[in-house]
Specification:
This protein has 412 residues and is α/β, with parallel strands linked by helices. It has 15 helices and 15 strands. A hairpin with a 2-residue loop joins strand 4 and strand 5. Helix 1 crosses helix 2.
Length: 412
């Protein structure tokens, strides 16, 4: 979707506006301005994939970067240090909320604009793609009066969307809800939100200590980043508060291990942990042009092993249509939801081996990320290739996959 601009006739202000408007129209989550030796390459991220958008000639590169920094409230004279900024505006009647980051590179400043979209959070927890079992487990978690609930996943996997949706569910007149965030990403009426500012000593840990003196019922911590924050969050959750937070881990088992690595005492973690919601985002199939194909032996094996079903047909991406881009339109969350039970609490306290803890975590009604992903493939919501790309397979399944590919190559 390469676009060209007439840089001699169009002002830089209009070009920047058009880039942002085009990105929002195409449901982009990020705009990248990448400095190269002879040009400034602009790329936009749609459904998790970066695609080329346009190239800015060197003669106009500096002016364009300066314009972005001006509207983001950044220091235009500083190009040696990273900076953060924000843009809250309205273009063509569309309200926009964006975060801007600059990074000095050997070829010049790289700028990334993150376009914040809270439409999913506003729609509520019911619209986030949870299966009925997983949704019911989350409702049980948030109805426990105290404890800590963690939403985990890599950057850009929708953790904030899930946390904000939970907060909206909990936001009632009788509850005193306080959040500590960096940055505050979405204004929530009726909730007290605190912006962290490390420059003046307003850290997560310092704010949390003050929050505990504010008679809170529910505390949301934007992210657990260090040992001190983890310890305070866990201690807050066992003194009668419901604590929500996020963590950069892949699944339930890794989350428990990570918290223990952060020197959270075992007995405290066992007593406080209520539940873990792990998630990834897969590209969503366009319902208008998707195609149905026969499953191969490897696909049948994974569906049988993980879901216990014989599946002979699945959908793949179509060639693209007016409703999508390359057969995909939007993204869908893949979830793993663990509601902590007494057996898992005892295992954490007693320092059992990883293999034994893994068996306890996954032997019950927990659907793994792979199982949830394959279920969404079976329902025609995403593709088999997307799930395999996102989720790490067992060594045994990787060998079977390789053998299947080898057979296809030999046949050809």
């Amino acid at each position: 979707m390469l676009k060209t601009f007439d840089f001699e006739k169009l002002p830089i202000v209009e070009i920047v506006n058009e880039i942002i408007i085009d990105a929002t129209k195409n449901r982009a989550s990020d705009i990248h301005f990448d400095p190269l030796s002879d040009t400034l390459k602009v790329r936009i991220r749609i459904d998790g994939r970066l695609i080329d958008y346009c190239s800015i000639p060197n003669d106009y590169k500096r002016n364009l970067i300066t314009r972005v920094k001006i509207i983001a409230g950044m220091n235009i004279t500083e190009n040696r240090l990273p900076q953060d900024g924000a843009i809250k505006t309205s273009l063509n009647g569309v309200p926009l909320d964006m975060r801007v980051s600059s990074l000095p590179t050997n070829a010049g400043e790289k700028i990334v604009i993150r376009i914040l979209d809270y439409s999913m959070s506003i729609q509520g927890l019911e619209k986030l793609g949870f299966t009925k079992d997983n949704y019911d487990k989350i409702i049980k978690m948030i109805n426990i009066p105290n404890g800590i609930i963690l939403v985990t996943g890599a950057t850009g996997t929708g953790k904030s969307t899930t946390v904000y949706s939970v907060l909206q569910k909990l936001n009632k007149e009788e509850a005193n809800i306080i959040t500590v965030e960096d940055p505050v990403e979405m204004d929530l009426p009726g909730i007290n939100q605190v912006q962290v500012s490390s420059e003046i000593g307003l850290t997560f840990a310092n704010v949390l200590r003050s929050i505990l003196r504010q008679d809170p019922d529910i505390i949301m911590i934007g992210e657990i980043r260090d040992d001190e924050t983890a310890t305070i969050a866990v201690r807050a959750s066992i003194t009668g508060h419901l604590v929500l937070s996020t963590l950069h881990t892949n699944d339930s088992l890794n989350t428990i291990e990570r918290l223990l690595d952060m020197e959270v005492e075992r007995y405290l973690l066992a007593a406080s942990l209520s539940g873990i919601v792990s998630q990834k985002l897969a590209r969503k199939l366009c319902p208008y042009c998707r195609k149905k194909i026969q499953t191969n032996q490897y696909q049948k094996h994974l569906f049988k092993k993980n879901l216990g079903v014989e599946l002979n047909e699945i959908f793949i991406a179509g060639d693209g249509c007016e409703h999508c881009m390359n057969g995909y339109s939007g993204r869908i969350a893949i979830h793993e939801v663990l509601l902590i039970n007494e057996d898992i609490r005892d295992a954490i306290s007693n320092n059992v081996k990883k293999e034994e803890l893994k068996e306890l975590v996954y032997k019950g009604d927990v659907k793994t990320l792979l199982q949830d992903g394959l279920l969404k493939v079976a329902n025609g919501l995403t593709t088999f290739e997307e799930i395999i790309r996102l989720i790490e397979l067992d060594a045994e399944d990787i060998i079977i996959q390789k053998n299947e590919l080898d057979e296809v190559i030999e046949t050809k």
